[in-house]
């Protein structure tokens, strides 16, 4: 199956096995950049802005060193508000976590997360979420 566009995807995951698994799943849909901490994720997001390159999707693990996924999500959304005009579309952000609980889910949604996925992540669920986010058809 082919897709109408090649997505630009950032994957932030501190667990090597999960990082490689997510890269394997997402690479079908586009080019993946990978980082292992929340701080690196935010820096990659800022660098993309500087380079006039925006991510279509950012996948954030909630439990990461230096800056957790919630902190990264909040900082990205704050930065987007400062730099984008009203007609701009923010990048889609998907949170992944082994800690599927109401508090994490509510916090993520409050901070404008677009999708929330519990681990273990399944490829067909990723595909379903990408369709729901209108990133693939």
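Sequence proposed for the structure above (137 residues):
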């Amino acid at each position: 199956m082919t897709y109408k566009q090649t997505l630009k995807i950032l994957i932030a995951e501190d667990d090597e096995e999960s990082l490689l698994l997510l890269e394997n799943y997402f690479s079908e849909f586009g080019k993946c950049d990978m980082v292992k901490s929340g701080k690196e994720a935010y820096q990659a997001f800022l660098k993309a802005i500087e380079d006039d390159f925006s991510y279509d999707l950012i996948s954030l693990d909630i439990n990461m060193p230096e800056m957790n996924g919630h902190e990264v999500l909040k900082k990205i959304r704050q930065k987007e508000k400062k730099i984008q005009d009203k007609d701009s579309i923010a990048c889609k952000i998907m949170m992944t976590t082994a800690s599927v609980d109401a508090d994490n889910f509510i916090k993520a949604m409050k901070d404008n997360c677009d999708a929330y996925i519990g681990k273990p992540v399944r490829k067909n669920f990723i595909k379903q979420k990408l369709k729901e986010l209108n990133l693939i058809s």
